[in-house]
Design a protein that fits this description.
- It is a single chain.
- By secondary structure, the protein is mainly alpha-helical.
- The chain has 16 helices and 4 strands.
- 68% of the residues lie in helices and 3% in strands.
- A hairpin with a 6-residue loop joins strand 3 and strand 4.
Length: 447
Amino acid sequence: MKIRLALSATLFVFALCSLSHAARGQQAPGPGAMPATAMPSVVQVPLEAQPSDHFDAVAATNAYLARIPAEARARSDAYFEGGYWLMLWDFLYGAIVAILLLQLRWSAGMRNLAERITRFKPLQTLIYWTEYLVVTSILGFPLEVYEGYSREHKYGLATQTFGPWLSDQFKGLLIGIILGGLIVTALFGVVRRLPNTWWIWGSVVSILFVIFSVMISPVYISPLFNTSKLLDDPRVTGPILSMAHGNGIAVDKVYEIDASKQSTRMSANVSGLGNTMRITLNDNLLKRASPEEVQFVMGHEMGHYVLNHIPKDMLFLSVVIVLLFGLLRWSLEWSLARWGEKWQIHGITDTAVVPLVVLIGLIFFFVLTPITNTQTRTSEYEADMYGLNTSRQPDGMAQAAIHLGEYRKMNPGPMEEFIFFDHPSGRNRIFAGMRWKAENLKLFAKP
């Protein structure tokens, strides 16, 4: 039981640490500095995409795709396809580390050290968790350097030097120790006090922890990595706030985040929950995107808010968490009966069981990848449609899809998109915009 709870906690901490990766941004080069392998900084509306009596959505889509230099497309395809292999290597590397901690009885040794330091169970759990997170971070550091630093620089997506990058990793580790320590301690407390129903109450505690994390993230987590400020340019905020008010969104502030100090990626997001919910765009988007593009992107983000995607995502994740705990309830007992003595793990209330929980969780989420990606991709498509109808900027949507194509494959196969894409592909997004434009040509007719 205890292992299952700890696994959830571990995975949630990894999710929290991923907030720091999501916050990574970097300085966008000016239009004249873009290399030949980069996407165009300014995407002009091609002739085939301009309104006419013979407008064709497919031809307009192909015309937009033709604006992408062949070298840029090959580069983004190579980057994104390399991510397929990284998913596998991340899974295998994490599984190997978990197995080593069990087989070499390092996990049992870390538990013994915690017990020698104190007899107080919650403090033992916190000490063990700190040991575990530090050891696994060290073991996983080479892969993290390649994946999060070297590879990003190789493809021109990162601007952060190694020192600041390492500082962000250290911040993520501290967040994992503090917040992860709280949830792991709480979960082990549930296992010890409710030995028959721990998996039910562990699910409840984990879901509440996820809600808490989402609420505090924009206010307390993100500022540790980036500085956000109110966007006060009326040329940008005017159309955005007009869209918001016209759609019944009671918001009078738009936030900008300095992602350019870490990455060249253009993005925006809806984060938080309740009073902490906010819409934020990064400074790369402001520097490189057209006004039409910014309006579509913000309409898309408003769609997430209006369509209640954050609560829906929480509901979906809650179902996943319950399924995970149900799996843990069976798999932990079976695994410990078979190998527990060899690993020197005394039961599910033993903190040394954490690597086993993590191993089971890794397998669970690896197998679930196509399902979780489909759920996210569906929400993104819905937000795209809302953004189109709100902003009425189909060409801005096409321009945004091309810019996002700097690190996403533009034209994957159907099965490839189903398995690996958590957003609609660039081609499908451009086609959706052109299809919408074809049905609303009167909006673009010259007086």
